[in-house]
Amino acid sequence: MPSCKETAQLFSDSLDRELPWLQKAVLKMHLSMCQQCKAYTQQLLQLRETFQHLGHHSQEDTPPLPESTRRKILDAVKAEKGSL
Ligand SMILES: [Zn+2]
């Protein structure tokens, strides 16, 4: 059983790439039992949707959100979760 920290890492990986089925199963299992991680992943998904929404409405020549900025946001969300 992964810790909450490992689960958060797995989840953020799952946004970047397709996870092996075993990791996905572990992630899903943890989320079904842990309210804190469930809330955290929902928060991340909402952020992601917000960015996709913004991207959709921006000019074509607007560069996508840089990886470094995205990481900073993810870290901020993680830090917030850690302070709970
Ligand atoms: Zn958890």
What can you see in these coordinates?
With 84 residues, the chain is mainly alpha-helical. The chain has one domain (4-48, 64-82). The chain has helices spanning 4-16, 21-33, 35-57, 67-82. The longest helix is centred in the middle third of the chain and has 23 residues, at 35-57. It starts with a helix and ends with a helix. Zinc ion binds at residues 4, 7, 30, 34, 36-37. Zinc ion is lined by residues 4, 7, 30, 34, 36-37.
β-sheet strand percentage:
under 5%
Overall mean pLDDT? 85
Q: How many independent structural domains?
A: 1
Taking the sheet with the most strands, its summary is:
none
* CA gyration radius, whole angstroms: 14 Å
Question: What structural class results from the helix and strand content?
Answer: mainly alpha
Task: Give the helices and strands as they follow along the chain.
Answer: HHHH
Summarize the structure.
The chain is built from 4 helices and no strands.
Descriptors for this entry?
77% helix, mainly alpha, 4 helices
Detail the topology: elements first, then pairings:
Layout: H1 4-16, H2 21-33, H3 35-57, H4 67-82
Helix pairs in contact: 1-2, 1-3, 2-3, 3-4
Bound molecules: zinc ion.
Residues 4, 7, 30, 34, 36-37 line the site of zinc ion.
